Known about the structure:
With about 475 residues, this protein is of the alpha+beta class. The protein has 18 helices and 13 strands.
Amino acid sequence: MSTRKRKPVARSGPSPKKSRKAGAHEAAHIDTATHRSSPQERAEAGKALRNTLPRNAFGEWKAHATRKDPIKILKAADAGRLPELVPIRYGRMLQSPFAFYRGTAGLMAADLAKMPATGLRVQACGDSHLMNFGGFATPERNVIFDINDFDETLPAPWEWDIQRLATSFVLAARSAGLPDTKGRDLAETCARSYRKNIGKFAAMHPLEVWYSRVTARDLLDLLPPADRKRLQARIDAALKHTGSEMDFPKLAGVVHGRLAIRDTPPLIYHPDVARAPDFLDMLGKLFEAYRETLPDDRRVLLDRYQLVDAAIKVVGVGSVGRRCWIVLLMSDSNEPMFLQFKEAVASVLEPYAGASVFAHPGQRVVAGQRLMQPTSDLFLGWVTSWNGADFYVRQLRDAKIKPLVETMNATLLRTYAKACGWVLARAHAKASDVCQISGYLGTSPQFDEAMGRFGLAYADQAEKDYAALKRAVREGRIVAFQEI
């Protein structure tokens, strides 16, 4: 695997001392000196921050005078992507302002870095819009609700995650045809849930926080009876089979006399390297390097599967163009398993929050995911490929239950906003000391209401940037491919 290091990145945000120790924990970027004081003292220190940064100040958004052209920022993010897939990325972003927002974590990070912040840091998701939450099965085959995308995770200001999440609810409400009064209510509901749960987690002892999780039952209890029944049916269906068993008929079959992943270009295809005679040998060496990043017990489990095939699969919105392989393995008893090798690059937060302590960006993703989730994928690991690209690895799908946001009414969206705020608070509390954040937020609704105002204002900005993208496509400055 590669051991190359990136050049230092200039920081505009808080600049904690970087650990030089090989394999150092990302939490080295989070100030741990506060742990020498009592929880009450840390809460009082957080409360004192209101004197310099009132909570209602977070409700203000105005584009900075030096704000860069959003199209230039988007095009800069195309560097290193597979050029033939970049038009698909823009085609997906053109579907709606909400779809556009999903692909602009870097653009929003640049904006948030210009805003005032408390200076308190957590292990942040980095791209905490509402579609990056959902249900999935734990290794014990229990379904929990949690964050499920950590491509951009990094120690960073806590505010950035909740600001991005709150805004996503305003845009989702607009996409559903709901008035801005509902959108603002959703943003406030999300922030209120975050604030109240941060307070609860700050009062817990560390092991209690570490073991906490939002279960399927917790989520069901938030729902009206009719919706509860529908969600339970989805959970039951998801647990009947592994994700790979469900994916296998759609993704693979007998091709030219052998078991293989089926090509459905441009979204799933075998690149030239995958057709080379020695490809499986190359893939086997890659697997050996990836295997070394797994705990011993997971290596034993992985060894019970044989490599069969691998192909490129286009996923998501912001990830389109990054190399994402799906790998088909089969057990001796003929059960399939798909692993996803997803390209990892520097987090979009790094220019503003500081470079990761990990030289390997795949390790950054894995470490952040393990820190923030209550339990993570069995096969979570990382590797560098033969051409120098870095990847993190996980199962393609394991009983995942995606939020059907497009079918949600205002009541369901409000319930979902509560759940997302709860989960984000749990993730921040598990990975960081949040007593100061809790002290800052307090018990009044000032911050919640500020997030309602900010969500509306930044959603307006996202729509302006979306219009700029549409204009760039019309003028031929950007090529977009609209999928049928």
